[in-house]
Amino acid sequence: GLMFHRVIPDFVIQGGDPKGDGTGSAPSTVIGEVPKGAYPLGAIAAAKTGAAPAGTFGDQFFIVTGPQGQALPPEYATWGVVTEGLDVAVAISNVPTDANDKPTKAVYIDKRELKCACVGGDSNVPLGFVSLTENLFMIGMGLWMGAKALGWVSL
Questions:
Q1: Which of 98, 94, 97, 99 has the alpha carbon at shortest distance from 10?
Q2: How confident is the model over 51-95, as pLDDT tens digits?
Q3: 32 with 77: CB under 8 angstroms?
Q4: 76: burial class by Cβ within 10 Å (0-12, 13-18, 19+)?
Q5: Is the confidence at residue 121, as pLDDT, over 50?
Q6: What does 81-146 look like in DSSP terms, one character per residue?
Q7: CA dihedral 122, 128, 129, 135 (to 10 degrees)
Q8: What is the H or E stretch that residue 44 is in?
């Protein structure tokens, strides 16, 4: 499992970095949807470098555990919200840390589970269908770009 490498009480817990120190994400030009208002408590959002455009993301993510996190500027793509176990995320945010907000004892992601998710929260379109459609679209675009680069198609 991956560890939470940055935990700050009343703010966020951050993880997903393959190196475990906050420096291991591959940069991305994929842009996700940013919130239109404040982040809800328990929001799961994409972490990014300060210089990256709003909504871009790599491997890292954070979970909002308090009011300081809710007040973040709407620059981070959101993926969902914790519906059960937010107390665990809040407890993680309160573990002892070093001067860089890294837990003094590693806290790992042991299990993740997606029970149900719908686009927009009030839609009947299952997330799996949307993900499949997005993936098929990305494959199609990749094939198109490859064919264009090889000169098989032109505009």
A1: 94
A2: 777 877 777 889 999 999 999 999 888 888 888 889 999 999 999
A3: yes
A4: buried
A5: no
A6: E--S-HHHHHHHHTS-B-TTS-BSS--B---------BTTTT-SSBHHHHHHHHHHHHHHHHHHHH
A7: 130
A8: strand 43-46
Residue with structure tokens 């799996």?
A: 128
C-beta separation of 69 from 62 below 8 A: yes
**Measured between alpha carbons, how far is 78 from 81 in angstroms, rounded to an integer?**
8
Residue 126 token pair: 């299952």
Report helix, strand or coil for 68.
helix
Residue 41 DSSP one-character state: T
| Mean pLDDT value of segment 124-134 | 52
